[in-house]
Structure formats: C-alpha cells, structure tokens
Amino acid sequence: MKLVSFRSRSEAKAKPRIGVLLPDANTVADLQTTAQHALNAPLEYFVDMLAFLEGGQEAHDQAARLAERATEYAATHPVNTLVLLAPVPRPRSLRDVMGFPVHIHGAIKRAMESGHVTPEMAAQNEMFRAAMQRPLYYFSNTNSVTGHDSDIIIPTYTQRMDYELEFGVYIGTCGKNIAAKDAHRYIAGYTIYNDLSARDIQFDEMVGMLGPAKGKSFDCGNAMGPYLVTADEITDPYALAMIARVNDEEWTRSNSSDQYWRYEETLEYISRSETLYPGDFIASGTCSRGCGLELGKFLKAGDVVELEVEGLGMLRNRVVVSDTPFAPVPLRDPHQYIAEHG
Asked: Distance between CA 1 and CA 59 in Å, rounded?
C-alpha cells in the first residue's frame, strides 16, 4: 500500500488524516471516514500515521480491507484536492546515515576544490575512512519536516542551498539490540527524503567535529514523501533507480545498489543498547552523485526540485527566498577571548 497523511486544500488548519492511494493513483481512500461507515466507529489505528505504525500488522490489514470499501461509502478524495504532508508529519526521531561512501568521497573532493576543506583538514578528519568502518549518522530536527509540493525556504544565512537525494525507512516495531538478519521485521515502510543543506555553513561548522548544526537545521529542511510505501511493496530496496531533476533538467541518476551500509546493518548498529520505536525514521544518506555539491552547482529561488525513487513515487518541492534579506552568521574572535581570559 501507499499511505498518505493529508488535509483538504480548503481546510488549511484541519487536523491531518491518513489514507491509502488507490490503484488509479489519482484517488485517496480516507481510512477513518470509511471505518466510521463500515464499522460504525472510528479506529485508533487511523488517528494519525504514528498510531497506524504502532498498530502493526493488524492496522496494516485493516487499512487494506477498508481501502477496498472506501468508494462504497463515498469516502474518497481526488489527490489534486489534497495537501500531501510528510507521511509521518512529526517522526519520533530522525537519523540520517552516511550510507553511500562514494557520495562522501565526491563531496570532500568538491569541497577541497572550492577551498571549503583543505587537504590537511580532510586528512585529519578521515571522514571517508570512518564512514567505511561503521554506519555513521546524525540526528536531525523532526519539527522541520515538510511534505510533497511544499515550499522550501532558503535560510537567510546561506548562499549555497543544496538538495540531497535519499530514501529512508520508518520503524514499525519497537526493538533493541536488533540482529541484522531480523531487521526487516522492524521496517514498516519507505519514503523519499530530501536532506536539504546550507553547504557553506555546513563545512564551516563541521570543522568543530560535532555535526552540521545550522548547515542542516532550519525550517522546511527535511522534505519527505509523497507516500509511506509499505515494506511488502518493495521486493528489493537495493535495486531502485534514483533520479533528481531541477527545473525538469536531470542532475542526478543513481541507484540504491550503491548503498554500502544497508538498513539491516544500520538498524543493528543503531539499536545496540538503544530502543527504536514505531515512527522513528532512518535515512539512507545521499546516494552516489546525489547532490548539487558533487556537481558544482546549487539551488536558487524559483527552482523546482523533483526527487524520484523507483517504487516510491516522486517528491516535488519549490525553492523560495526568505522574506528576510541575506545576513551572514556573525562569528566571535577566539583570539580576543584568549587574550582576555588567558
């Protein structure tokens, strides 16, 4: 199934509902409305997508049955009348893995060419070697998640806005110390992920060895969608064509077969002495040649970015400029502090 979180375009402040995209790909079955008609009562599974994921296989089976009856009760909506939010509008957590080391290698090379990373810094950081040894990841801001066809606002402090072509998994079962061989049981479904980046700020910050911080963390910085495609729909997640277009021009063509750290290994690593919960989102990392940095070009206001992953649909967002003019982040002088405090 392809599940969506949605609201009507005419009800901008309405609580999101969840539904199933019907086989015609133009119609969404409203699950809770159908349940009220067919079962004479709402179901807790369909309050929102988090509740659906917590419902496990029973919620999945009930959704499949009700989706087939939605037309009978006139509980359907044309897709073009809906706003498609991120499948889980507020994931419980958001981790992004360096799953494609070829991307890391290409990104560091480009950063060195642009002067943002010196050869000495690259050697000292050993980022590529570290990313090959274990599935490194960082946490992102779940409050900055946005959905399909939403606007992406360029942060006021960057002049190098970039897309990153990724896809990710939603956890559907609570688990800890998960073995790789069992990890598939914990994956409820997949979606496309655009990990937007302020590249100039990102490189400056990561010299501090903590993480990208404002290089990644800004409103609308995590675009996801358009659907949560249930795991049973994807036969092999490591054989998916991945394409990025900007203003209908193809910038990236890659394949998930290049994914070095696969979800089974990643879940095993992340869940060591740490519990994963339904609604946690774990992203693949940027695919090979999957961002503008590797190509030497960046996004600008007015651009329309389309990310397409085979079997998962197409995620589209428009880039817009902030109402506030560009203002670089002010930096403190560490030499002055040392001089004053010894």
From this structure: 12
| Longest CA pairwise span in the chain (Å) | 77
CA distance 261 to 50: 26
Rounded distance, CA 22 to CA 77, Å? 10
The candidate with the shortest Cα–Cα distance to 50, out of 15, 25, 11, is 15
- Please answer whether residues 229 and 312 qualify as being in contact, where contact means their C-beta atoms are separated by less than 8 angstroms: yes
pLDDT along the chain (342 residues), means of 10: 95 89 97 96 96 97 97 96 98 96 68 60 62 89 97 94 98 98 98 95 77 89 98 98 98 96 97 98 95 93 98 98 84 78 69
- Per-residue confidence (pLDDT) for residue 161, from 0 to 100: 96
* Interatomic CA distance for residues 72 and 258, integer angstroms: 44
**Nearest of 160, 105, 149, 168 to residue 292 by alpha carbon:** 160
Q: Which residues pair with 225 in a beta bridge?
A: 192
SS (H, E, C) 119-182: HHHHHHHCHHHHHHHCCCEEECCHHHEECCCCEEEECCCCCCEECEEEEEEEECCCECCCCHHH
Q: In what order do the strands lie in the sheet with 313-321?
A: 151-154, 313-321, 304-309, 241-246, 249-255
Domains annotated for the chain, with CATH where assigned, are: 2-84 (2.30.30.230), 93-321 (3.90.850.10)
Amino acid letter, residue 283: A
Task: Give the separation between CA 342 and CA 326, rounded to whole angstroms.
Answer: 35
Alpha-carbon distance values, 293 to 149, 161, 162, 196, 207 (Å): 23, 9, 7, 11, 18
Q: Apex CA 38: angle with CA 33 and CA 42, to 5°?
A: 50
At 123 the pLDDT is: 54
Read off the tokens for 231.
């795991």
pLDDT on residue 124: 47
